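re: ur question from earlier - yeah i can do the single chain one, its not a big deal. heres the input i used so u can compare w yours
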Amino acid sequence: MERSAEPAPAEPDLTSEQLELLSRYEQLLLGRGIPLGVVAESDRDRLHERHIQDSLRCVPLLPERGYCVDLGSGGGLPGVVVAIAKPDLRVGLVERRSKRAGFLELVIRTLGLGNAGVVAGDVSDLEAGSANAATARAFAPLPEAWRAARDILAPAGCLVYFAGASLVTGLEEPEGSSGTRLVSGPEGGESGPLVIITR
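and the output i got, formated as tokens:
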């Protein structure tokens, strides 16, 4: 199915406090996350652009309130960024690897993110229909990510999937979805489009 991408929405307007939290999170990724392997050492000099800024792209596409699940959260990208940018949205950071889950607990505690929590286990452990939205960045291929998200999303809930730069056309309508949209990635960047699949 040929599908044209919508232009990306404007970046979220963040307060000075939110910008400070993002800066502190970036320092945690540099000081603790890289040694743990949650971010590659090769990304040290471009961590802000490649991970923080890239994660912010999904923020305007998520609801203001409710519950959002970050599938395979890893180092908290984009889940921690979403929790900082949307303080009224509850964010579940799903991570089955214990070292990464421990890092996420440290981040939440250090930054005082009362709207975020770690779900140490598999996506399949979550209650069916419990989430209003889900995010997936470097989690799994799109069909697998949709299968993981579909059961935990409430009716009209959506998955925001960070696609590779090669995914532009030829996207099939996934089973169990009511609609699919593409949102353009940044021009000239390494990032691909965002795919929004609604249940």
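Residues 16-34+42-56+63-198 form a domain with the Rossmann fold fold (CATH 3.40.50.150). not sure if urs matches, ping me
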